Amino acid sequence: MSEKKFPMPDEIKAEQLEDRPGREYKMETQPIYDDKDYKGYDRLKGKTAIITGGDSGIGRAVSIAYAKEGANVVIVYKEENQDSKDTVKAMSKYTDTSKILQIAGDIGDPEFSKEIVKKTLEKFGSIDILVNNAAEQHPQDIITDIDNEQLERTFKTNFFGVFYLVREAVPHMKENASIINTSSVTAYDGNPQLLDYSSTKGAMTSFTRSLAIQLAEKRIRVNQVAPGPIWTPLIPSTFGKDNVENFGADTLMGRAGQPLELAEAYVFLAWHNASSYITGQTIHINGGKIVNG
User: Fold this and answer.
1) Is 197 a catalytic residue?
2) Which residue among the candidates 33, 66, 164, 197 is catalytic per the annotation?
3) Domain extents for the chain?
4) Facing residues of 149 across strands?
5) Closest CA to 235 of 257, 253, 264
6) What pTM does this model have?
7) Who contacts 32 (Cβ-Cβ below 8 Å, separation ≥6)?
8) Which superfamily is assigned to 44-228+259-285 in CATH?
9) pLDDT digit string (tens) for 21-79?
């Protein structure tokens, strides 16, 4: 990766996005998701990866990184069609579009997971890497403001959807396959405004560890990345202006992270040659916060 200067909080416009989880193409301060000087080394050549939430934010950066490394990439997204098109356009600079499949739907629906697996196998014939990255959050100041609908919706997207997709995909995954989950620093540090979201990420962490034990005999590795404050459409679509304009300022790095800064961790965990002895673990990418686990 070439040396880059990432924006400080005062360089990020404190904008607000009306739609949740946000549309990246509407952001005035665009997240940094690609290092155009880095072309990749075919480390994932011949592998097929499913990436939920692959149309924007962290998912977009991972999708592009995997394309550079030669993988077939299945981008799963809900309804952000323009973002998905923009991601494919960025990927097409490094790979043939025949190696990209877009699938739209609600990850919280168990039937959609069956569709994802079916279409992936029909087009590419295998599932070697599964990145569970899709998530939503709805800040509330107090637990009594979190109604049943919000609680169920957050868990359906952030955790049940992961469970459904893993359950469908695992029977088709072979030795040396890799499952990578996106957890969060909130699973370890907590967040008073994100009580339900933090709980889903805590469930994700326990799921990652338990699934790693369960699949060890099959030689399928299961790990997770726990991001800290990362500048994605999720932030200006869910937090107020005051939170957005200071986003990431309280980290040791003094700024929010960019999606590009996480992508290599997902490549590392997917590439068996490099991470063959790693399972049940968490890579913390959070600007310097020290957490247990």
Assistant:
1) yes
2) 197
3) 44-228+259-285
4) none
5) 257
6) 0.94
7) 4, 6, 231, 258, 259, 260
8) NAD(P)-binding Rossmann-like Domain (3.40.50.720)
9) 667 767 878 899 999 999 999 999 999 999 999 999 999 999 999 999 999 999 999 97
